[in-house]
Amino acid sequence: MRLSQGHLTLLDECPRRFQHTVLDGLTVPAAPELLAGQQWGDRFHLFMQQREMGLPVADLVANDRELQESWEALRAIAPDLFVCDEIFRQSEHERSRVVNGYWFTVVYDLLRLWGDRGEIVDWKTYLRPKPAAALQRDWQTRLYLYMLVETTDLTPAQVTMTYWFVRTRDRQTQHIAPQCVHIAYTADRHAQTHHDVLRLTTQLSQWQAQGNPLPQVPMGSDRCHRCPFAIRCQRGSAPEPTLMLPALDDIAEIPL
Questions:
Q1: Is 256 inside a domain boundary?
Q2: pTM of the shown model
Q3: Which end of the chain is more exposed for a tag (fewer CB within 10 A), N or C?
């Protein structure tokens, strides 16, 4: 089975929701306002990818003033991002590795490698940045850094991950003002992530071997109030559509 950071998040938070979403293939329609944000994010990622590849990008920003402003603001505030002095630099870079019988795949928005260090760059198009502490706990951060160490000769201390929130605005001027969160890595965090990946995948294998529905979170959990499968799990009424979505950008459509 192929797994991503989104799958690990579901397994960690609610195994039964993992079953509904991944094993049973159930989907939840996106609320229009959330869908619009996702579409803008897709356009920004495509713009950055085509720019890195040296392909024309004028058409992508011709009718999107906000995208143009975001790009210009990012280039002005972080010129070092676009100084290509690395020995390896690639947009939409994919890495895979089998861990405990499961095939893990990550796709980096931008990977930068030098002789003695590596940096993962991730473009975020949320309107509000997430706190650094929350990002550090996020399975995207954990799995991305873990996979880079596991698939290169770099040590944990030599790799970092930088999130760029490219759509944030200055509170006073309302001009686009990208913000970044820089996350370092350590050997202890690498060991903990390895332990947690083994724990979650071992549990998943055991649950599937038993042939029973995957476990639910305890009755009364706040997660149930925000879950689109609340009725299916006999945990009350379903929430409003705007609260239904998991982190769709973290959960790739992966064949089982």
A1: no
A2: 0.88
A3: C
